[in-house]
């Protein structure tokens, strides 16, 4: 069977034309990159796990009325999503200091923040996704003031919900990255959560031991990377039943 038309290939995912207008197929690869793609590797089974974890989280978000691009999972590595106009921002929500916040402001990793902090980064690989202020976003027309109001409200709701969800399975949600898109419904436009929510885009620490269960294991060469992603899925109760051996999954969908 002829492969569907590929529209875009990113670092960890590929987008294909969907079966109906207004839909796309999002394929999750095992490829991993860090430090603006200077570090590259493969995390075996990551695509399968991220597909499943992101499905689970997007479905839980839909249940509490947070709109997302997710329609349904198609197979081990692919999900059907709505085509949206991606807003060129990485929206990071932080509860505990880590990563670039710790480096930039000299705050020790693990310091509880006085309140949740939302940051915006301009999505531009050539520039290395620079931190930007609302002023830049509205002045350059990447998003309107109204869009940003919606984005901030959604980001904080997602944070509250996911913090509780992960706390329930013994995980601290340190920080995470969201992307948003505009979904057009006739004349109406709605901002929805897009991309993925997975251990690639979250910092997840074991509540008791502070063990990292996310992409920092790859970024910082901590080892047991596959195991960490599996552990997140296991705690969420969604580890594929066939177990680790099956995580490579089918290459393509029919
Ligand atoms: N993040 C991401 N994609 C990026 C940059 C960051 O998913 O291109 C996530 C990252 O996994 C972490 C959060 O956003 O959960 C905050 O990342 P930070 O700004 O600390 O950057 P990093 O230390 O990852 O370079």
Task: Furnish the topology, listing elements before pairings.
Elements: E1 6-9, E2 13-17, E3 23-28, E4 31-34, E5 39-42, H1 46-63, E6 70-73, E7 78-82, E8 85-86, E9 89-96, H2 99-105, E10 112-122, E11 131-132, H3 134-139, H4 145-167, E12 171-185, E13 188-194, E14 202-206, H5 216-219, H6 225-235
Antiparallel strand pairs: 1-2, 2-3, 3-7, 4-5, 6-7, 8-12, 9-10, 9-12, 10-11, 12-13, 12-14
Helix pairs in contact: 1-6
The structure holds uridine-5'-diphosphate (UDP).
Summarize this structure as a short list of keywords or feature phrases:
globular; single chain; binds uridine-5'-diphosphate; 7-stranded antiparallel sheet; 6 helices; D-amino Acid Aminotransferase, Chain A, domain 1; Phosphorylase Kinase, domain 1; 2 domains; 254 residues; alpha+beta; 5-stranded antiparallel sheet
Provide a descriptive summary of the structure in words.
- The protein is built from six helices and 14 strands.
- The strands form three sheets. Strands 8, 9, 10, 11, 12, 13 and 14 form a seven-stranded antiparallel β-sheet that branches. Strands 1-2-3-7-6 form a five-stranded antiparallel β-sheet. It has a two-stranded antiparallel sheet with strand order 4-5.
- The chain has two domains: about 5-85 and about 225-240, 2-Layer Sandwich (Phosphorylase Kinase, domain 1), CATH 3.30.200.20; about 85-205, 2-Layer Sandwich (D-amino Acid Aminotransferase, Chain A, domain 1).
- The protein is α+β, with helices and mostly antiparallel strands and about 250 residues long.
- The termini are close together.
- The protein has helices spanning about 45-65, 100-105, 135-140, 145-165, 215-220, 225-235, and strands at about 5-10, 15, 25-30, 30-35, 40, 70-75, 80, 85, 90-95, 110-120, 130, 170-185, 190-195, 200-205.
- Helix 1 (about 45-65) packs parallel to helix 6.
- Helix content is about 25%, strand content about 30%.
- It binds uridine-5'-diphosphate.
């Amino acid at each position: 069977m002829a492969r569907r038309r590929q529209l875009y290939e990113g670092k960890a995912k590929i987008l294909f034309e969907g079966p109906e207008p207004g839909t796309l197929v999002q394929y999750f690869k095992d490829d991993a990159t860090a430090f603006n793609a200077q570090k590259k590797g493969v995390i075996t089974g990551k695509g399968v796990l991220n597909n499943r974890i992101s499905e689970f989280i997007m479905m839980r978000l839909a249940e509490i009325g947070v709109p997302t691009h997710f329609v349904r999972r198609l197979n081990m590595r692919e999900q059907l999503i709505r085509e949206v106009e991606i807003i060129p921002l990485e929206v990071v929500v932080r509860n505990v200091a880590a990563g670039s916040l710790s480096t930039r402001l000299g705050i020790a990793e693990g310091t509880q923040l006085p309140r949740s902090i939302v940051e915006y980064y301009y999505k531009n690989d050539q520039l290395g996704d620079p931190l930007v202020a609302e002023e830049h976003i509205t002045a350059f027309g990447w998003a309107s003031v109204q869009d940003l109001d919606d984005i901030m409200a959604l980001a904080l709701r997602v944070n509250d919900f996911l913090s509780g969800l992960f706390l329930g399975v013994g995980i601290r949600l340190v920080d995470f990255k969201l992307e948003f898109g505009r979904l057009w419904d006739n004349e109406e436009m709605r901002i929805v959560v897009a991309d993925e929510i997975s251990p690639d885009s979250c910092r997840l620490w074991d509540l008791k031991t502070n063990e990292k269960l996310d992409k920092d294991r790859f970024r910082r060469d901590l080892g047991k990377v596959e195991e960490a992603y599996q552990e997140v899925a296991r705690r969420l109760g969604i580890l594929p039943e066939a177990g680790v051996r099956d995580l490579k999954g089918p290459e393509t969908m029919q």
